[in-house]
Amino acid sequence: MLYHLLFPLASSYKLFNVFKYLSFRTIYAMITALVVAFILGPWLIRRLEGLQARQVIRTDGPESHLKKQGTPTMGGVLILVAIVLPTLLWADLSNRYVWTTLFVIVGYGLIGFADDYKKVVEKNPKGLSPRQKMFWTILVAGAACIFIVYDAGLSTELYFPFFKNLHPDLGVFYIPFAMLVIIGASHAVNLTDGLDGLAIGPVSINAATYMIFCYIAGNVKLSGYLQIPYVPGSGELAVLCGAMVGAGLGFLWYNAYPAEVFMGDVGSLSLGGGLGTLAVITKQEILLVIVGGVFVIEALSVIFQVGSYKYRGKRIFRMAPIHHHFELKGVAEPKIIVRFWIITFILALVAISTLKMR
User: Fold this and answer.
1) In the 8-state DSSP scheme, what is residue 259?
2) Maximum pairwise Cα distance, the chain
3) Which SS3 state, helix, strand or coil, does residue 169 take?
4) Quick one: residue 259, left, alpha or beta (phi over 0 = left, psi -120 to 50 = alpha)?
5) Which listed residue, 184, 194, 313, 345, has the most CB atoms within 10 A of its CB?
6) Cα gap 155→234, rounded to integer Å
7) Rounded distance, CA 183 to CA 134, Å?
8) How far apart are CA 291 and CA 288, in angstroms?
9) CB burial class (10 A; 0-12, 13-18, 19+) of residue 343?
């Protein structure tokens, strides 16, 4: 909005020329998201308390979690507002990729909101059924992927980090693959959101990493020099990534141990879906396995645990997802959280290093 209102004035006032620079708008989208989170955070927490939107803690989990009973949840609403508003203010709203990513983020946020509302406000412990949740996540991801391939013209080739000449064309099969990336990322972040600040820290680091890749992928010279796919228009997503980073850090202010508010499914599903969409648009789908390694490990720990118990009658971990396993082994919650952040930061550096290792 500001871009469209103020950049045309650059011909008369050179000061407004700064609005053409992605770096400027990305930084201020991040700052705006932080400010929005800081201003709205206390008010939203009070509103959630008034609605009795309080977290229900499982009795079969770690005993240390029982003291979290009653903590307000559905704080992901704050994250959504802090992403959407700065993006609308600072991004070029004629860009299709911006609208597609916002569509997935808001769409998944609404699915998560419906699930959370049924659980914590209507006191229906089941929330949305797994079938309902899967139907809507598939519908949103499918609509987004069909649009960006057939309308926006995104390539159906698949690129691999470290291998500059390996990019098979999946053709029509790229649509279900891209959907799997978005849905898988969404549910992986959802599974990771089990400790105070555990999910939002890695999400912010992932968003910052993809901010770099969006900027490069949208620049024909940089993408050519670094030998990564050039995706015209994808650079504008750096603004959205900046908003994600700012929103994540702003929410972490209230979600850091001991948490004043939890994000709930409204936050975790939308953030994961957003990361998956960014990976698809920038043609860095496989890279998400690296930079989002913590999310991958959390999801795999659940898959292996369920599979092992079903077919062998034995558990691999004391409890899944794996962060609960470490809790039951006696590792303090803050230590688990910070160590997972450190691992994510290291993986982000590895992901960025692939720019020069092809």
Assistant:
1) P
2) 74
3) strand
4) beta
5) 194
6) 13
7) 9
8) 5
9) middle
Tokens linked to 29: 């989208």
pTM here is 0.94
Q: Which two three-digit tokens encode residue 252?
A: 């972490």
Give me the residue spans of the domains in the chain: 2-353
Q: From CA 111, how far away is CA 99, in angstroms rounded?
A: 18
Helices (H) and strands (E) in the chain, counts: 14, 0
